[in-house]
Amino acid sequence: MDITVLTAAQEGLALVLSWPYILYPLAGTLLAMVFSASPGLNSSSLMALAIPVTYAWDPLAVMLLFGAFVGGATFMGSVTAILFNIPGKTQNAVTLLDGYPMTARGEAKTAIGCAAASSALGSTVGIFILMALIPLMRQAAVALGPPEYLMLAIWGLTMLAALAGNSLLKGLAAAGIGMALAMIGYDPRTAEQRFTFGLEYLHDGLSLVPVFLGLFALAEMIDLIVSRRATLSGRLKSQELGGSVTEGVLSVFRHFGLFLRSSAIGAVIGGIPGIGGSVAGFIAYGHASQTARDRSQFGQGDIRGVLAPEAAIDAKDGGALIPTLALGIPGGTGTAVLLGALTLHGLSPGREMLTDNLVLVFALIWSLFLSNWITSLLGLALVNPMARLSTIRTTRLIPVILALAVLGALQFRGLMADVVCAALFGLLGFVMKRLHWSRIPMVIALALAPLFETNLHLTLRLQELDRIDFWSRPVVIGLVILTLGNLFLPAILARLKSMRGNRQQ
Predict the structure, then answer these.
(1) How many Å apart are CA 119 and CA 67, to the nearest integer?
(2) 465, exposed or middle or buried, with CB in 10 Å at 0-12, 13-18, 19+?
(3) Would the pLDDT of 240 be above 50?
(4) Torsions phi, psi for 299 (to 5 deg)
């Protein structure tokens, strides 16, 4: 990092901590926390609402506020996932896989403590990676093309074997359903409609927001109604809740290698335009499962299933700013809205942003850093009242959660059809849960299929035109190696474990 970058970083930090500019990240963080704690109400919605309000503000204030919006939402979304099986944002959906089972065991505090520590430290890793890559981000972004995107999708799809649960056949069948559902809408090659059955709602394909709300939130509420469970945790008194915040925080350091790898995955995935935190979280979760000596507890309340995705999801915020600031290509939904706000205030991403406005860039980065830590620390301070929510009687909770889920689906695009879609997937999720079918292969296939299909067509076309040589691209080769590792590493580890067991006998 050259002296110019270091100086800009110092000046940006000084501006963030100065009065009255410190109020902008503080206010932005609190607003983002409130929004992200409610299903369907997230930082992207908040940023869209704030754009007209901030029209007359100076660029620095806008940078500080929107930086806080980007960073202040992620952890709070995991709290609702852990306590109620309802992700505050779609990217927090992966956290509920092991977070909610921990709540059901009375370990809500441990899960929240782990999520808070992973979130704060993961965001720190992602932000410092961003800072280190600022001098090289333009050159790095140019190296990515359809072959790299294609292999990234294939790499993610190979995680399905690890996420299939006890039955590989059921997992593959669920993944097949997800791939089929992803084909609804326009064909990326011909632009023709397919599998829409004449319904205008399906022309653009299925939206992940109502799908996720249905598969997880509504499905769990239906299950609670059918099972007639008294509370989420099965206990009536809050003092009976087990676990501790300290244990959750310490678990991050006990699995520090996994934390670092997951943070790196999040930062890399976040830097790829259009991928988003959901994919980063799923890939980190799959990596944790693939590399674990004993993965039998994943999906049943394994602390590593909370640690890995939370570290990746928060680290991706720093990575997502790389293409946004360098090329004007948003790394996700939140950064897309951020890009609109920057453009409205005369800030052009690219060479101008990284030279003339480098101090503002670092002000944005430091605001993101500060908001992540404030969110996690406030979350830890409020862990006791939040954990008590798991002892609320389901007769009082179910109507509220159902109302929030419906509101989240309706608020997304204002379409009643999204509510119907969420309800249908709620029934599907309930049936899958009762039949012991993992919903995760279906979800990850649904999320990765468009990326796979689009870039498969582009890669094949470029090959036909002799525009690219697939096997001569270093990033492609690296991703192929990682994919092969996903396919064969579990068998190798199982074999080594068996050999060690035989020696001990």
Answers:
(1) 16
(2) exposed
(3) no
(4) 90, -10
- DSSP per-residue codes, 460-481: HHHHHTT---GGG-HHHHHHHH
> 379 versus 238: which is more confidently predicted?
379
DSSP string, 378-392: HHHHTHHHHHHGGGS
The number of beta carbons lying within 10 Å of the beta carbon of residue 161 is: 19
- In whole angstroms, give the CA distance from residue 130 to residue 138: 12
Under 8 Å between Cβ of 333 and 74: no
Find all residues with CB under 8 Å of 246, minimum gap 6, and list them.
113
3-state secondary structure of 276: coil
Task: Answer yes or no: are the C-beta atoms of 215 and 425 closer than 8 Å.
Answer: yes
Over residues 45-52, mean pLDDT:
66
Give the CA diameter of the chain. Answer: 74
β 185-186/193-194 pair status: antiparallel
Give residue 15's identity as a one-letter amino acid code.
Answer: L
Cα dihedral 245/102/84/26 (nearest 10) = 30
pLDDT in tens, 494-503: 677 677 766 6
Gyration radius (Cα) of the chain, Å: 22
Angle between helices 59-71 and 333-344 (to 10 degrees): 170
Alpha-helical runs (H) found in 255-292:
256-270, 277-291
Do 80 and 39 contact (CB within 8 A), yes or no?
yes
Cα 72 vs. chain centroid, distance in angstroms? 14
Question: Could you tell me the two tokens for 194?
Answer: 């397919």
pTM for the predicted model, two decimal places: 0.62
Q: What is the length of the chain?
A: 505
CA–CA separation, 62 and 60 (whole Å): 5
Q: Tokens 């109604």 — which residue?
A: 225
Q: Under 8 Å CB-to-CB from 115, ≥6 apart: which residues? A: 75, 78, 79, 82, 95, 99, 248, 306, 310, 379
Using CA atoms, how far apart are residues 105 and 109, in angstroms rounded to an integer? Answer: 11
Where are the domains positioned within the chain?
Answer: 3-460
Of the candidates 447, 413, 386, which has an alpha carbon nearest to the alpha carbon of residue 44? Answer: 413
Q: Mean pLDDT over residues 131-153, rounded?
A: 70
**Separation CA 212–CA 406 (nearest Å):** 12
